[in-house]
């Protein structure tokens, strides 16, 4: 890890799936960041052929990036030139891959959902603490500039007064019954279901806006949840977070049975003096929000609002990568934006949702 001028982070990539391809492709875009320099140092795959194909596809516009391709993950962990390992494998493999990287003394940025349950997350963080390495959950939504601005307006400037309700829904079209048995979306050992895959984003919007998203928090929410299944796989989750003292509610829904075009409004935040609509292609991809004054009783038309735009040319992975590089350069062992306690808390909430809804994984 170099700290001259801006920090340089040399990444080792674990698995060559979609998340890893998005991450790598974005990090090598020329001039996309002025906070850190990113080098794809090594790529680990199940075979050299797959690794080389991945590199050819994701680094085609970055001739200066020449990573070492390994036919195993262990070789990435052992590479002395790798500063941080990015883990983009399915949820069910996160604990194993994190522990392997930690045992090798590597820093880790692991995709969401961090693990299958809170117990696994605590195991990973305990191992990181004992080894003295950095570990963070790659909840990229929290790192976006749009989220920082929205939190400031809500919780510091209180532009809509006291927030009392947030709703967020994530829909995707995935016909579980038509997928082959080998699909990760049908494999409970890998965390199949909508909650860990996409529901965590809807849940995150509720936590960010109702609480501010980071400790300290004033009270723990109660959880009421229900889930629906197709062929034993959870395809729809609905949950309510209720805060006993303040009376605030978070209404969180997620579904893989999309039958209509999803709304461009991905979250709605209601306050005593107004409301905010967050827009984007999905709760994972916000692009703008509009702050409205309170809708006057008897007025038929929506009041005029103030729009805040945050266009992102890529997926948005660069923000979490930059912040990881800055954390490492400062010697931190936890993310300032997604500390270990917050990862565990989110996993605990999803554990309770699954307990009430009926989703059970082999590791539970």
Characterization of this structure:
The chain has 364 residues and is an alpha/beta fold. It folds into 2 domains: 8-139 and 317-323, NAD(P)-binding Rossmann-like Domain (Rossmann fold), CATH 3.40.50; 145-311, Dihydrodipicolinate Reductase, domain 2 (2-Layer Sandwich), CATH 3.30.360.10. It has helices at 18-27, 48-58, 73-78, 91-103, 118-131, 145-156, 194-211, 317-329, 340-357; strands at 8-14, 37-44, 68-70, 84-87, 107-111, 135-138, 163-171, 222-230, 233-242, 249-255, 265-271, 274-282, 285-293, 306-309. The chain has an 8-stranded mixed β-sheet, covered by helices on one side. A 6-stranded parallel β-sheet has the order 3-2-1-4-5-6, sandwiched between helices. It is globular and about 65 Å long.
CATH architecture of the largest domain: 2-Layer Sandwich
The CATH C-level class name of the largest domain:
Alpha Beta
**Looking at this structure, what is the CATH superfamily of the largest domain?**
Dihydrodipicolinate Reductase, domain 2
Give the amount of beta strand, in percent: 25-35%
The arrangement of helices and strands along the chain is: EHEHEHEHEHEHEHEEEEEEEHH
**Which descriptor suits the 3D outline?**
globular
GO molecular function: D-xylose 1-dehydrogenase (NADP+) activity; nucleotide binding
Catalytic activity: D-xylose + NADP(+) = D-xylono-1,5-lactone + NADPH + H(+)
Domain Gfo/Idh/MocA-like oxidoreductase N-terminal: 39-136
InterPro entries: Gfo/Idh/MocA-like_OxRdtase_N, Gfo/Idh/MocA_domain, NAD(P)-bd_dom_sf
């Amino acid at each position: 890890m170099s700290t001259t001028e801006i920090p340089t982070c040399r990444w080792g990539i674990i698995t060559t799936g979609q998340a890893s391809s998005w991450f790598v492709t974005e990090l090598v875009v020329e001039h996309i960041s002025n906070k850190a320099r990113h080098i794809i140092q090594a790529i680990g795959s199940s075979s050299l052929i797959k690794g080389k194909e991945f590199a050819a596809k994701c680094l085609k516009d970055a001739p200066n990036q020449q990573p070492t391709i390994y036919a195993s993950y262990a070789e990435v962990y052992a590479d002395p030139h790798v500063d941080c390992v990015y883990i983009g494998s399915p949820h069910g493999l996160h604990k194993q891959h994190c522990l392997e990287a930690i045992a090798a003394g590597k820093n880790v940025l692991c995709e969401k959902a961090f693990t299958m349950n809170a117990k696994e997350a605590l195991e990973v963080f305990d191992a990181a603490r004992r080894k003295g390495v950095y570990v963070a959950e790659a909840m990229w939504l929290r790192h976006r500039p749009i989220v920082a601005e929205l939190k400031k307006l809500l919780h510091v400037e209180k532009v809509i007064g006291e927030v009392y309700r947030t709703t967020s829904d994530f829909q995707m079209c995935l016909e579980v019954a038509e997928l082959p048995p080998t699909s990760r979306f049908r494999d409970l050992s890998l965390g199949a279901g909508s909650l860990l895959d996409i529901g965590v984003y809807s849940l995150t919007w509720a936590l960010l806006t109702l609480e501010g998203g980071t400790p300290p928090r004033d009270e723990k929410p109660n959880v009421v949840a229900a889930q629906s299944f197709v062929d034993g796989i959870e395809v729809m989750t609905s949950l309510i977070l209720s805060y006993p003292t303040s009376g605030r509610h978070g209404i969180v829904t997620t579904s893989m049975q999309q039958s209509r075009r999803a709304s461009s409004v991905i979250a709605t935040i209601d306050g005593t003096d107004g409301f905010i609509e967050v827009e984007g292609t999905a709760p994972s991809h916000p692009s703008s929000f509009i702050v409205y004054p309170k809708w006057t009783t008897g007025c038929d038309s929506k009041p005029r609002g103030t729009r805040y735009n945050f266009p992102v040319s890529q997926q948005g992975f660069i923000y979490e990568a930059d912040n990881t590089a800055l954390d490492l350069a400062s010697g931190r062992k936890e993310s300032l934006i997604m500390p270990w306690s917050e990862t565990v808390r989110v996993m605990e909430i999803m554990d309770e949702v699954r307990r009430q809804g009926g989703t059970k994984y082999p590791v539970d």
